[in-house]
Each structure stands twice: as structure tokens, then as C-alpha cells.
Amino acid sequence: MNENEDLEEKKLLGSGGFALAKITEEEELKANLGVPQIFLANIGRLDEERFLKYYCNSCAKEFDGSPQIKFENPNEDLGQGMILVEKGEYKCKNCNNLIAFYRKFNK
């Protein structure tokens, strides 16, 4: 991310809740699937300090700050030149509910 790039507060949807985070215009375009919503899974891993708050569907509550972020770098060859570089999860710090997950691939 470019230090001079403007960050804008956006609602990022996940299957188990949503988060309010500051993202760049480039990240917003990457996460937008042509519908009005922006999906956290399409952005990938964001730094914890970029999150303002998140909502957990399981707790039915909003929490300040970032959800728990867990990730690994398996560098798994999936065939046909596709490599799974990183896989991660955003989880509720209160109940461990999965807010969203993401996968990053290289060809």
C-alpha cells in the first residue's frame, strides 16, 4: 500500500458478520464483484489497525477494533500453475465465530 494513498471507511461483508475498515480505492475495486456490497474475503489480509469495528452474527454484537486474524502460507501447488500462497480467517475475538475467510493465489 502506498503511504500517500487515501483510506476511506467502508463496510466489508463476510459470511459470519461484517467489519468497518479503512481501505484504499484499489482495494475497494478488487473487493467489488459488480454489486453494491464490498466483500472482506476479496480484499485478503488487512492490518489490524485498519479496522474500526466488526459485527459478529453469532454474538449479535458489535465490537471495537479488529477481529482476530489467523493466516498461514502453505505455498501449495494446486496444479495447472496455480499456487495457494496464503489462506486466512477473520474470527470473532469473543466467540471464535468465523466472520470471513480469504485465499490468495499466484499463477
What does this molecule look like?
10% of the residues lie in helices and 50% in strands. It has 107 residues and is mainly beta. It has one domain. The chain has a five-stranded mixed beta sheet with strand order 3-1-2-4-5. Strands 6, 7, 8 and 9 form a four-stranded antiparallel beta sheet that branches. A hairpin with a 2-residue loop joins strand 1 and strand 2. The longest helix is centred in the N-terminal third of the chain and has 7 residues. The two termini are 21 Å apart.
Descriptors:
mainly beta; 107 residues; 5-stranded mixed β-sheet; 4-stranded antiparallel β-sheet; globular
- The tally of domains stands at 1
The strand count comes to: 9
Shape descriptor reads globular
Low-confidence stretches: none
Task: Specify the structural class.
Answer: mainly beta
β-strand percent reads over 45%
Helix fraction by DSSP (H/I, runs of at least 4): 10-25%
Major sheet details = 5 strands, mixed
Gyration radius over CA: 14 Å
Mean pLDDT: 91
Distance between the termini: 21 Å
Strand line-up across the major sheet: 3-1-2-4-5
- SSE topology string: EEHEHEEEEEE
Q: How many separate helices?
A: 2
Helices and strands, with pairings:
Elements lengths: L7 E7 L2 E7 L1 H7 L6 E2 H4 L7 E6 L4 E4 L3 E5 L3 E4 L2 E10 L6 E9 L1
Parallel strand pairs: 1-3
Antiparallel strand pairs: 1-2, 2-4, 4-5, 6-8, 7-8, 8-9
